[in-house]
Amino acid sequence: MAGARKGRRNVHVRGKEIEADSITPEQLMAFQVGGGTMVGGVVGGEEFFTFTPNSNQNIKPSIDAKKMLNTIENEYVARGLERQKNLLFTEKPEIEIEDESGDEDGDLEEVVEKDFERAGMNAGLFASMKMSYNDIYGWGCYLMQPEWIRDMDGVIRPGKFMRLAPESFMNPPKDTSGYIGDDILQGIGSRNGVIEFNQTQNDGVIKRLNGVIMMRDPSVPGICGRSKLKSLVPVVSFLSLCYKSQGQVINRQGAPVLFIQFNAEPIQVAGKRDDIEHAKKIIQYWGKESQYILRPNMTPVKLDFAENTVTLKTIEMLKKDIDDHFNPTVFLSDTERGGGAARIDTMKLFIQDAHRMLEDNWEPVVNTYLELNGYDGETVELNLPDAEPDRAQINLQRAQAIDTMGIGTMDEKRVLSGLVEATPEILAEIEKERETRAKMIPGATLGQSQDPVVDGKKGGRPADPISEKQKNGE
């Protein structure tokens, strides 16, 4: 065992270097892990592990563009991002343009809106803003090359917004002298204070592009911003591993693990397939669609593994982690997430922050349209309407609570319920409805959810007098 410790004379225990000879042979263990050596043992009653990579080992970033793309394309991640977009993009953006005097130019707004709706890759401004949110959230930035076209009247209009796939910028340029690239999108970097965009073409050639517009969240660091899905990369990787493991379990149900036991000494004949070779072939190739003949001295032994639900539980846990990632209210308490004001405020703040970030990135694009067409002094403001998540449901609950406690007026309850204040005409209609309801349902008042009781059964309808006469032959 002394030879087993050769080359590992010193190890580290909680930051302190000690002599490996102080570890007993029974306590020392070593095994190869990823091109390095993991050493573990017990010193003074304390367990330790230390990892030493090989000197020639190339340490690569743990997360690269390929892993990011695999995470973004994951079904559960894509589903969560789609839910977020449905929450954020409920209406088209409004374009507001003011002249030098601060007056709104409605005619110019209408022209600009129509031109930008025709722009994009057959999508328009609204769809392009959705795509930009996808890339900024997933990659940290949105990349595009806008095209401007002069028509017969001399007006310069947006042709299309050519989205550039972020994953096509994963490789750095060949000349990296003075170049500082992004950690993930290494084709985007800074050289002498100038941002470069080096795209890998379909033929593998890396080409530097000009005229690229990069949109990102200005509140986060990094050349390309920061992907909000980066934390999900190990989760998705582990989820894929669990699915693969579960698939192996399913395959084993059709072709269980099989061993062959010899009941007598295996026969070995030179030049012919002996018993051992025959047994190896059976074990290697047998399956649900292939059968083999056992020799008299062979007995199949099937290993029965108890069904393990750990993998399935792990899959559900990882799926929940992904769902929680896309839930802005996940850090609130259960009571607050159930529909309280804190949940509403958190959702509203999330929507507003996302909208302001997108508006700030796209306003310069619309402003370029005005500059190219000679509109000096006009200012552009984009406005994505903010949704009010579940506010109506909260107000309805408040109206019901006020009614139950008897502490509010009719108009206060009507406003909370989404109705206008009661005019004399509305009050007359309410009184008429109250009288009608009292006749149909004895003892019921307007506002109660009491069902009529007919023939001793709740939820029935009052009998029709004419129908009753016809049944009785009258």
Question: What is the fold's blueprint, element by element?
Answer:
Elements (H helix, E strand, L loop, with lengths): L9 E4 L2 E4 L9 E5 L2 E8 L2 E8 L11 H8 L2 H14 L5 E5 L7 H12 L7 H14 L2 E10 L5 E9 L14 E3 L6 E4 L2 E7 L5 E4 L3 E4 L16 H22 L3 E5 L12 H11 L12 E5 L7 H16 L8 H4 L3 H32 L6 E5 L7 H15 L4 H7 L7 H17 L12 E2 L2 E2 L6 H7 L3
Antiparallel strand pairs: 1-2, 3-4, 4-5, 6-16, 7-8, 7-13, 9-10, 10-11, 11-12, 14-15, 17-18
Short description:
By secondary structure, the chain is an alpha+beta fold. It is 38% helix and 20% strand.
> Alpha-carbon distance between the termini?
111 Å
**Strand residues, percent:** 15-25%
Task: Give the count of structural domains.
Answer: 4
Low-confidence stretches: 1-18, 20-45, 47-61, 444-467
**Proportion of residues in helical segments:** 25-40%
Q: Could you say which structural class the secondary elements and strand pairing correspond to?
A: alpha+beta
Number of strands: 18
Query: Kindly state the mean pLDDT as a whole number?
Result: 76
Q: Radius of gyration over alpha carbons?
A: 36 Å
- Please list the strands of the largest sheet in the order they lie side by side: 9-10-11-12
- Give the CA-based shape: flat
Put simply, the count of helices is 13
Largest sheet: 4 strands, antiparallel
